[in-house]
Write a structure and sequence with these properties.
D-Maltodextrin-Binding Protein, domain 2, alpha/beta, two-stranded parallel sheet, 9 strands, 262 residues, seven-stranded mixed beta sheet
Length: 262
């Protein structure tokens, strides 16, 4: 257990390093043609949402299209490697997230080193996640959920792409409570959310902005947020840290290019 906790803390520290990315500095002639922005997960998740908003803003400001290209699989590694191996001319970029930093420890045989082989372009946003359960789950608070899971070990499933902050949000909850909740791997948050709404899985963590509609409509129940304090977006949802002191997870997003990009 101690080794697992140390491992988790190392992953968190690596992910936090992504927040230190410098601002963009581009020549006036760039871009002179459309730019590809690769995403390592399926459409409908938080990485996709942030990428779409940013691509629209960049296209309007710079006068060229920023085209989203989804290459889900291997926790985002397929898209990351495609960008790292691409021509370093600034026309192939990668929408990065904590998974890019975390994957270095989860996949020991990668043919690339993300930190070494990529060049940071800019940080974009930092978000908190929210713990969601299907209405069929007999719990309205985090303590009630933990009590139910401990009375029914292995009965609940949670969905997440492996190595993402959504995945590790659940793993940290399991680590700190001893709860036995089964991980169901997905290629992105979008398909996991669809299955949660349909009752195929019972819980998941998702970015707060993508969860508000389902919380307010009663389609899903929010038990807690991963930030240390309450979120203005969902002020009625308490931080998980109120029940588990020290619990905190955040999601960050940024853009990187191949290392040799001018």
């Amino acid at each position: 257990m101690t080794l697992y906790r140390r491992h988790f803390l190392r992953l968190s520290a690596a992910a936090a390093g992504g927040l230190l990315m410098p601002p963009i500095a581009a020549a006036q002639t760039y871009p002179s043609r459309p730019v590809r922005l690769l995403i390592g997960f399926t459409p409908g998740g938080p990485v996709d949402l942030v990428a779409r908003l940013m691509a629209d803003a960049l296209a309007e400001r710079l006068g060229q299209a920023f085209l989203l290209e989804h290459r889900p699989g291997a926790g985002g590694n397929l898209a990351a490697e495609a960008v790292i191996r691409s021509i370093p001319d600034g026309y192939t970029l990668f929408m990065t997230s904590p998974a890019a930093a975390i994957n270095h420890t989860l996949y020991p045989n990668l043919s690339f080193n993300f930190a070494r082989d990529s060049a940071p372009v800019g940080g974009i946003v930092r978000l908190a996640n929210v713990l969601l359960v299907h209405p069929s789950v007999p719990a309205t608070t985090v303590p009630e959920l933990i009590a139910f899971v401990k009375a029914n070990p292995g009965k609940l499933n949670f969905g997440a792409a492996t190595g993402t902050s959504l995945h590790l949000s659940a793993e940290l909850l399991k680590l700190m409570t001893g709860a036995q909740i089964i991980h169901v791997p997905y290629k992105g948050a979008g398909p996991a959310l669809t299955d949660l709404l349909g009752g195929q899985i019972q819980m998941m963590f998702n970015a707060a902005p993508l969860s508000v509609e389902y919380i307010r409509s009663g389609k899903l129940r929010a038990l807690g947020v991963t930030s240390a304090t309450r979120l203005p977006l969902v002020p009625e949802v308490p931080p998980i840290a109120e029940y588990l002191p020290g619990y905190e997870v955040s999601n960050w997003y940024g853009v990187v290019a191949p290392k040799a990009t001018p």
